[in-house]
Amino acid sequence: MGVTGKLLLSLSLLTKLVLAEGAPAATPSIPGREGLTPFIPLILIFGVFYFLILRPQQKRQKDQQRFITELKRGDMVVTQAGIIGTIKTVGDKFVTLEVDQGVSLKILKSQILESAANLKDDKNSSQKEATT
């Protein structure tokens, strides 16, 4: 079950809980508690939303920012456009990528997606599969 499925399941359970609270009670309600009761499901929904969506997204952004600040000459990277190249120079906002011998591109640092080190392993394994 994915994150969305868990979120929908949680929301449906909370909706049932809210509807059950809306039913007339056999016991008299306690004064002062009526104002807090409707907010409990909203607080729970916000908590679920934070831990399933916001927190992981913030972690990914932090990891991406750290990766971009640690870039150095000679790193092989993949851009968001899918271009693979080796970093030739690193500036404050721009990076020069060498995509082929004598062919360089100047791109924004923020457009670098990930390291291409894991692509080298995929390339070697696909070559081994092709030979067998």
The Cα radius of gyration reads 26 Å
Describe the strand arrangement of the main beta sheet, using strand numbers: 4-3-2-1-5
Summarize model confidence as the mean pLDDT: 80
> How many β-strand stretches?
5
Task: Indicate the low-confidence ranges by residue numbers.
Answer: none
What percent of residues are in strands? 15-25%
What is the 3D shape? elongated
- Count of helix runs: 3
Characterization of this structure:
The chain has 132 residues and is an alpha+beta fold. The protein has two domains: 3-69, no CATH class; 76-131. The chain has helices at residues 3-22, 39-69, 117-131, and strands at 76-79, 84-90, 94-100, 103-108, 112-115. A hairpin with a 3-residue loop joins strand 2 and strand 3. The longest helix has 31 residues, at 39-69. The two termini are 37 Å apart.
Write the layout of secondary structure elements.
Layout: H1 3-22, H2 39-69, E1 76-79, E2 84-90, E3 94-100, E4 103-108, E5 112-115, H3 117-131
Antiparallel strand pairs: 1-2, 1-5, 2-3, 3-4
What tags apply to this protein structure?
about 50% helix; elongated; about 130 residues; 2 domains; five-stranded antiparallel β-sheet
Q: Summary?
A:
This protein has 132 residues and is of the alpha+beta class. The chain is built from three helices and five strands; from the N terminus they run ααβββββα.
